[in-house]
User: Fold this.
Amino acid sequence: MSDNETSRSSNFIRQIIDEDLKTNKNNGRVVTRFPPEPNGYLHIGHAKSICLNFGVAQDYTGSCHLRFDDTNPNKEDSEFVQAIQDDVRWLGFDWGEQPYFASDYFQQLHDYAVQLINMGKAYVCDLSAEEVREYRGTLTEPGRNSPFRDRRVAENLDLFARMRAGEFENGTKVLRAKIDMASPNINLRDPTIYRIRHGVVHHQTGAEWCLYPMYDFTHCLSDAIEGITHSLCTLEFEDHRPLYDWFLDTLGTDCHPQQIEFSRLSLQYTLTSKRKLTELVNEKLVEGWDDPRMPTIAGMRRRGYPPAAIREFCHRIGVTKSGNSVEMGVLESCVRDELNAHAERRMAVLRPLKVTIESYPEGSGEMLVVSNHPQDESMGTREIPFSRELYIDRNDFLEVAPNKKFKRLVSGGEVRLRNAYVIRCDEIIKDAAGNIVELRCSHDPETLGAAPEGRKVKGVIHWVSAPHALTAEVRLYDRLFNHPAPDASKDGKNFREHLNLESLEIVTTCYLEPSLEHAKQGKVYQFEREGYFCRDSHSAEQRSLIFNRTMTLRDSWAKIESANMHSGVLGGVNKHPRRSQ
Ligand code: ATP
Ligand code: MG
Assistant:
């Protein structure tokens, strides 16, 4: 990571930390954590939290723990544990020696629960889940005490031990904290802290436990056990903070981390809900968690988004307490900026049209040395073959120019082949149905590389040499949804109904310059005039060469969005600068 990236401007959380350091609050230590639940893959929203937690630790020479919040074995899986580690590492962050697991503390947490019982601060309750809900009251009405609230300590200890020993069925008993059923904060109305779960195998602890602690109880105590100083979480936990503090104060833990909340990221034209992303995967509406259209880190990696672009995005959006829905264009422009600066250039023809240069001697050919990047010489050069038979893109030819702006090839007109000669179209060959199947052209041998004085050619098009070309399948991706808020649209439609049915176009026969034969998976190239592309990371399993389009060169949605803005659909959304390539 560059110095420039790490010396980041301030935000309200960094101001709190600066203040704590001034007063030597935690003996000058800064320890944060990123606490994913291993029940799905990480998405762009998690990236915001990762960049914040690991970024703060980096900048204050502290540390950040990767901790799996694994208290709900029903939904968790070791596949997710592995994927989360891969993703955090790929984003460029390091959690030190080993990841942490809340399940490592199951015994300690159990002992804390026993301590609460001994203090008269927790009781075993036999109400059913539905009754617990009924007794809880509402936002406007206080709750009612459970009839089991006044069980004696000895009875609670006995029942809790028998719950632990597996004597009771799922759902028949829970352990609850004894706080205040009339509290205006519903989270403090005797929250459940342990529930019984028979018949599940936990990915870390196997069948050792049939009791599982609840998130609110586990999270604060895990933070305290690990000596976390600043526990950064999203705003929906603001109302849980009194409970976070209650557990730590009541139990008198040595360490009492400070919980600070910030707003969740939501990104337009996609989803940042793990539950809904899980549905897309399970219902096979996408290829999998790493489908290149998914807002998951694995999907963005496969699509070719550079990790530095994702980190830059998290920097640009900042960290605040106000809710924000960010335009997809902001993320895309981070990706374009990064790739424009760092991607090597190549030539590839996506919709091939054969061209024969009749003036070029049959059987001959030459190697042209061309640069890999127009501005950055350090990226070197490569050789590309030129020959009598080429492919150009169908869209770069029209029999008759529709207007003066058309700078590509027309019948009888001239165009420059990028890095090579100026050619003229002399003849059009059509099939019986009238489709153009080939162009016969002639070249000007004096024009290799640069145009001689006084030679005016309007356009430059890309090409590949036909006998040398590699055949590839190219997958053109577009946004997965065609509504800016697919899960919150006002038309009452379900997010599935906003899926963009044209989000994947597969072009099966594309021609690439031969240097792409050994393209590394995931390495992104700019196919000149076409966009950014990378070799698919699954294609090793397949025989053919497959490339994913990472990004178009320009934001083709900008126009649509600006039209929507004018009609008020997206009123109030931040505008962002767009850069043309
Ligand atoms: P979901 O609501 O989709 O289940 P989650 O927040 O429960 O997501 P976790 O695995 O518990 O998912 O999240 C790990 C951490 O990432 C938490 O600290 C959470 O606050 C943070 N996080 C999750 N989603 C976002 C988001 N959209 N923006 C910022 N931070 C997020
Ligand atoms: Mg969560």
